[in-house]
Amino acid sequence: MEIIIKPTVAEAQQETAKIMRRQISRKPDSVLGLATGSTPIGVYALLAAMHEQGALDFSQVSTFNLDEYVGLEAGHPCSYREFMREHLFGKVNLAPSRIHFPDGTAKDVPLHCAEYEAAIVRAGGIDLQLLGIGREGHIGFNEPSSSLASRTRIKTLTPQTVQDNARFFGSADKVPRHVITMGVGTIMDTRHCLMLATGGGKAEAVARMAEGAITADLPASILQMHPACTLVLDEVAAAELKRCEYYRWVYDNKPEWQRV
Ligand code: PGA
């Protein structure tokens, strides 16, 4: 796992956006896995600005979002489809036919989940998966005790995640209890995982993920087994890591050809 520690949230967002831009520049028809939540908002703003300045073309890019709430009708302001429209899709030249989401209104959920997995395979697999981390260590909505081999399926949110996401809905009782999420195994199949974590609320989960035991109790810890995982942090999110100085040393001594 490559661990990049930046002094500020803004610099961590810039590094993340640059890694995504490099992916799209190298492979214009990249398949991106995308995440929602507060953390990636700044990254999406930077990508939209790069597009606006003519420095980033999404015309051949395909996207698959990690997750969606069950039961929110199309156009619901708290649906992740709306979130993505507001923060990225409405601002760049992505073809609507190349945008993919789990459908939280699917009648046959297991069938829909199998079709989502099949669509990822048909697209050639995900080249770069953007990830956040929950305070209890989820990736996507793979909450603690998720199978580390899981595929796209329905999950029940933990009370902590319901609380954490209440700010988007106005109150916790409005947050759906169920979601459809790519599985841990689905995420592990992606070619490059790019996690951004910022703020002190993530410090403990980040330290357990990167330096603790691999355990379903903290699903993000499986990323230690991913052959290409980049973790971008601000100072505060990195505060509980034991080997901060070593990670900075590695970054400072990176060969020129590896730099973004
Ligand atoms: P956040 O969520 O960015 O809103 O903190 C991250 C996540 O749950 O993956």
Instruction: Give a quick account of the main beta sheet: strands, pairing sense, barrel closure.
Output: 7 strands, parallel
In sequence order, what are the helices and strands, one letter per element?
EHEHEEHEHEEHEHEHEH
The CATH topology annotation reads as: Rossmann fold
The end-to-end distance, rounded to whole angstroms, is 16 Å
What value does the average pLDDT take?
Answer: 97
Bound molecules: 2-phosphoglycolic acid
Helix content: 25-40%
Structural class: alpha/beta
* Strand runs, count: 10
Taken from the alpha-carbon principal axes, the silhouette is: globular
What's the domain count?
A: 1
CATH architecture group name: 3-Layer(aba) Sandwich
The number of helices is 8
Explain the overall architecture.
The chain has helices at about 10-25, 40-50, 80-90, 110-120, 160-170, 185-190, 205-210, 245-250; strands at about 1-5, 30-35, 60-65, 65-70, 100, 130, 155, 180, 190-195, 230-235. The chain is an alpha/beta fold and about 260 residues long. It has one domain (about 1-255): Rossmann fold (3-Layer(aba) Sandwich), CATH 3.40.50. β2, α2 (about 40-50) and β3 form a beta-alpha-beta unit. α1 packs across α2 (about 40-50). The chain starts with a strand and ends in an 8-residue tail after the last helix. The mean pLDDT is about 95. 2-phosphoglycolic acid binds near residues 37, 38, 39 and 134.
Task: Summarize this structure as a short list of keywords or feature phrases.
single chain; 260 residues; alpha/beta; Rossmann fold; 7-stranded parallel β-sheet; 3-stranded antiparallel β-sheet; 8 helices; 10 strands; binds 2-phosphoglycolic acid
